[in-house]
Amino acid sequence: MNSGILQIFQRELICPICMNYFIDPVTVDCGHSFCRPCFYLNWKDSPFLVQCSECTKSTGQINLKTNIHFKKMASLARKVSLWLFLSSEEQMCGTHRETKKMFCEVDRSLLCLLCSSSQEHRDHRHCPIESAAEEHREKLLQKMQSLWEKACENHRNLNVETTRTRCWKDYVNLRLEAIRAEYQKMPAFHHEEEKHNLEMLKKKGKDIFHRLHLSKAKMAHRMEILRGMYEELNEMCHKPDVELLQAFGDILHRSESVLLHMPQPLNPELSAGPITGLRDRLNQFRVHITLYHEEANSDIFLYGILKSMCIGCDHQDVPYFTATPGSFLAWGAQTFTSGKYYWEVHVGDSWNWAFGVCNMYWKEKNQNEKIDGEEGLFLLGCVKNDIQRSLFTTSPLMLQYIPRPTS
User: What is the third-level CATH fold of 1-84?
Assistant: First the structure.
């Protein structure tokens, strides 16, 4: 193969971003290929939609697969470059005039076969230079993948914390207005209790707002550290084989330490003091709700006097689901057009539930569709989130985190 053809072949294995041989190449949906690390670093603040740097077409690909063919060809191209480098006169062993083919992992030096078996290096661990370089490069890529996953997790958490910080004051004000509204319905001698509860809620709200800002700052700082470490590993990965082996040092250990102590979202809990007499007043409007058997989903089993239900189990508590269940939705038998009503629902140890009320228009329109937050529906729901439970309401949408009960 003449040099011109070889250069054309080598150019096809060059990443258009870093202008080096491909490292873990990926091909995006427009057909262009890049090093995975280079493509990731181009995402910046938009990790779910990025433009191809070659044709500017947008791609939303996230789970990119390695282009095995390009990876093998790029590895061969690096081996050719390594062979040409080691075959040069300057790289010959000064003692034995042999080509250096071995890498000493103890003192990170290149040796010929005779030097590797000498008394000085006999007890050291050696391996062929080309295989050592590829092994070190793969270790770097694995660590980079871990870093990137943590960076994406941190990015998501930062977005959550930013949104929560932006909406926090409005949320606190809504809570304050709700408490004031309840006390307006009560005798005047509750004024001191109202004042105390409002002051405590304001104080907690300000404290949490300050902690949210600190949490957001920690995540932003961690993002910079993760990106900086990722860029350093990427730079190391693209070094020629010999430079990579000799400069490897403690970079893996340093990258491991960056992954420790990742900041987590604050998940604030804004609790208010008890309102004297509230339960007694609510009990004045207590009603007993039963479930409407005729409209229950086939995966829902109703028990007793239609006040208990189980989802996904038969009457012997054996798990059961239809092939294509719709929504696990059960309707109450009672309806109302005006007035005040109060009832309690016991959910036990379950999670991912929602209870609420809707108007007839919403029911007729959404009988077989997913539950959403459009007009005509009000829900109180709970979603399991690791060791936390997320409580939310719709119309308006409000979210609050509470610790999982320990009992």
Answer: Herpes Virus-1 (3.30.40)
